[in-house]
Amino acid sequence: MKTARKRYVPGDFTLNVKRSFAGLGLFAGERIPKNACIIEYVGRKVSKKEEITSKSKYLFSVNRNKTIDGKPKVNKAGYINHSCKPNAEPFIYKQRVWIFATRSIKPGEEITYDYGEEYIKEHCTPCKCEHCRKGKRR
């Protein structure tokens, strides 16, 4: 994860939860410019002990002592799916997680970021993202 972006304030973008190749996904309801802060990944803070025993697939570690459990009911960003060729990227700043556009995102396009190799190996082997399903593996 990277740190130190200029502006950690999500734009007032229309974001829609809709059907995706992976179940449900988060889609842009309007154009989102490159480098825009899209949304914050929010949820209940859990201890390292609870993180280890949790069966949640929505855990986002922000430092060695703090993890956010961002189950989608409380966290619209929890609907963002993985892609090996993403259009967004998470940044951690002051123990909070912000999702930024890495390129311009078109209206109706699904918002994705790379969950990382460890997550893919543990939960999604082989990777089933749209990019990999088209035969363009990591």
Brief characterization of the structure:
Helices cover 12% and strands 30% of the residues.
Structure characteristics:
single chain; 138 residues; alpha+beta; Beta-clip-like; 3-stranded antiparallel sheet; 10 strands; globular
Structure description:
The protein has 138 residues and is an alpha+beta fold. The protein has helices spanning 48-53, 117-123, 130-133, and strands at residues 15-20, 23-28, 37-41, 44-46, 59-61, 67-69, 81-82, 88-93, 96-101, 112-113. A 3-stranded antiparallel β-sheet has the order 3-9-8, with no helix packed on it. A 3-stranded antiparallel β-sheet has the order 4-6-5. A two-stranded antiparallel ribbon has the order 1-2. The chain is globular and about 40 Å long. The mean pLDDT is 87.
Shape: globular
What is the count of structural domains?
1
Instruction: Give the structural class.
Output: alpha+beta
Could you estimate the helical fraction of the residues in percent? 10-25%
Biggest sheet, spatial arrangement of strands: 3-9-8
What amount of the residues lies in strands? Answer: 25-35%
CATH topology: Beta-clip-like
CATH architecture field:
Beta Complex
Major sheet details? 3 strands, antiparallel
Radius of gyration over C-alpha positions, nearest whole angstrom: 15 Å
Low-confidence stretches: none
Question: What CATH first level would be assigned?
Answer: Mainly Beta
Q: Give the rounded overall mean pLDDT.
A: 87
Number of helices: 3
- Give the total of beta strands: 10
Distance between the termini: 18 Å
